[in-house]
Design goal:
This protein has seven helices and eleven strands. It is of the alpha/beta class.
Length: 251
């Protein structure tokens, strides 16, 4: 079986948390939320294939992680977007890695089974990109998955860049992906910051795949709570409550 690497993005400032503590170190169920994501990744691959991208307060995040797990770190020197963050980790990937999964240090409820299913769909469909998607009644704030008349994925449009018609689309991008490693490295080199945020969007890799007529697959997640991102203290409280419910539901 081909090796899988997991890149966990944990470089952001988290300014809406109104806290001096790095966002990914805020605790959920008694431990920093990024450790929940690493624990999930360890069910899918080995420690030496896990790469945490740090940036804001990098040393503090790295110390908290290394106290628990012997994973790898890559430094994003300037916070230029998700595409740039992933690109920082690419040179550190082992040669035998064929697939790359992207997770987030502030999405602590993601489950190993979901990630394993994503990789399985990616492999079976022989895709260059596989998107973890979800259907939402209120998709406001999320990137929309744009399809052509043949229902093929052609792009992901961030909310800030979406047209009024595109904002009506209910299928959203959770931000979690499985990529073909070689394709990802090539596509990251082609990213341009020509958007309202002037950042390198990882989502633009999907558009590059479409332009090259590469296969883009979609895995639809039914349990949307798994991909709740923590951006505010209210989000943190909601995540803590959901974690408690999820634990209570385990057999």
């Amino acid at each position: 079986m081909d090796a899988v690497s997991v890149i966990i993005l944990a470089a952001g400032k988290g300014t809406r948390m109104n806290s001096e503590l790095p966002k990914v170190l805020h605790p959920v169920a008694g431990k920093p939320m990024v450790l929940h994501v690493i624990a999930c990744a360890r069910q899918v691959t080995s420690d030496h294939h896990i790469h945490v991208v740090v940036g804001h307060q990098a040393r503090q995040v790295q110390q908290a992680v290394t106290a628990c797990y012997p994973v790898n770190f890559s430094l994003q020197k300037s916070l230029l977007g998700t595409g740039d963050a992933v690109k920082c980790a690419i040179p550190a990937l082992a040669q035998d890695v064929k697939q790359v999964v992207i997770l987030y240090g502030d999405v602590p409820l993601i489950q190993p089974e979901t990630v394993a299913d994503l990789v399985s769909v990616h492999r079976s469909s022989r895709a260059k990109v596989t998107i973890l998607a979800a259907d939402m009644d209120n998709p406001s704030g999320y990137g929309r998955i744009i399809c052509d008349s043949m229902n093929r994925v052609i792009a992901i449009r961030e909310e800030a860049d979406a047209s009024a018609e595109e904002k009506k689309i209910r299928r959203i991008n959770t931000g979690i992906y499985c990529f073909d490693r070689q394709f990802l490295a090539m596509a990251l080199d082609q990213l341009k910051p020509d958007n309202l945020q002037a950042e390198y969007y990882l989502t633009d890799v999907v558009g590059i795949a479409s332009q090259k007529n590469e296969n883009v697959a979609v895995k639809v997640l039914k349990d949307i709570s798994q991909v709740l991102g923590v951006n505010t203290l209210d989000d943190l409280e909601k995540t803590r409550n959901l974690h408690g419910h999820m634990q209570n539901e385990l057999p």
